[in-house]
C-alpha cells in the first residue's frame, strides 16, 4: 500500500509539473504604462488645477476668518459677555463651515480623480487583454504589485504600450 501511495504521489507531481510548465505567464508594469499615457498626464494637470483652485478658496476663507477673529479679540474687552459669547459662537460656526468646505474640496478632487481614472484603467485593461490573448498568455501579472515575488517570464509591457500607441 505504501508503494502505491508513493507511486501515486510521484505520478501526480510529474503531471503537475508538466501542466505548470505548459502555462504561458507574462508580467506588465502597469505603473509605467499609467505614467506614460497622455490621458494620465492631462488628468494630473486637471487635478492640479482643481486642487489649486480649491486651495485658493480655502485660504481666502481662512484669512477672512483669521481677520474676524483678530477683530473680535481686539474688541472683546469693550464688549459685554453676551456679545462676546455670541461672537465666539459665530467664530465656531465659521470654523465648522471651513472644515466642511475642506472636506467637500477633498471629496470633489477624489471624485474627479476616480471619474478620470475609470476610462484610463478600462483602456489599459482592454489593451492587456488584447495583447495577452494575441500572445497566448494564460496569466498576466502586474509587475509593480508587491504580490509578485519572482519575475522571469515574458514582459508584456512593451506590447501593451504599442497597443495603446505609446
UniProtKB/TrEMBL annotation:
Q: Does the keyword rRNA-binding apply?
A: no
Q: Signal peptide location in the record?
A: 1-22
Select a single GO molecular function from the record's annotations and give it.
unfolded protein binding
Q: Which SMART domains match?
A: OmpH
What are the annotated GO cellular component locations? cytosol
- Superkingdom of the organism of origin: Bacteria
Q: Which Pfam families does this UniProt record tie to the protein?
A: OmpH
Query: Which chain positions lie within coiled-coil regions?
Result: 55-115
- List the keywords (alphabetical): Coiled coil, Signal
For this chain's UniProt record, which GO biological process terms are given? protein stabilization
Q: Which family does it belong to?
A: Belongs to the Skp family.
What protein name is recorded for this chain? OmpH family outer membrane protein
Q: Species name for this entry?
A: Epilithonimonas hispanica
Amino acid at each position: 500500500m505504501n508503494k502505491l501511495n508513493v507511486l501515486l504521489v510521484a505520478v501526480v507531481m510529474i503531471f503537475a509539473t508538466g501542466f505548470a510548465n505548459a502555462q504561458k505567464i507574462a508580467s506588465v508594469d502597469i505603473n509605467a504604462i499609467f505614467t506614460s499615457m497622455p490621458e494620465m498626464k492631462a488628468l494630473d494637470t486637471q487635478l492640479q488645477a482643481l486642487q489649486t483652485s480649491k486651495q485658493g478658496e480655502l485660504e481666502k476663507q481662512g484669512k477672512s476668518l483669521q481677520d474676524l477673529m483678530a477683530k473680535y479679540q481686539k474688541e472683546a474687552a469693550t464688549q459685554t459677555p453676551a456679545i462676546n459669547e455670541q461672537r465666539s459662537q459665530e467664530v465656531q460656526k465659521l470654523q465648522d463651515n471651513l472644515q466642511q468646505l475642506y472636506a467637500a474640496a477633498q471629496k470633489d478632487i477624489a471624485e474627479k480623480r476616480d471619474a478620470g481614472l475609470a476610462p484610463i484603467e478600462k483602456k489599459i485593461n482592454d489593451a492587456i487583454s488584447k495583447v495577452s490573448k494575441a500572445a497566448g498568455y494564460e496569466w498576466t501579472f502586474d509587475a509593480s504589485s508587491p504580490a509578485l515575488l519572482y519575475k522571469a517570464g515574458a514582459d508584456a509591457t512593451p506590447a501593451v504600450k504599442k497597443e495603446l500607441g505609446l
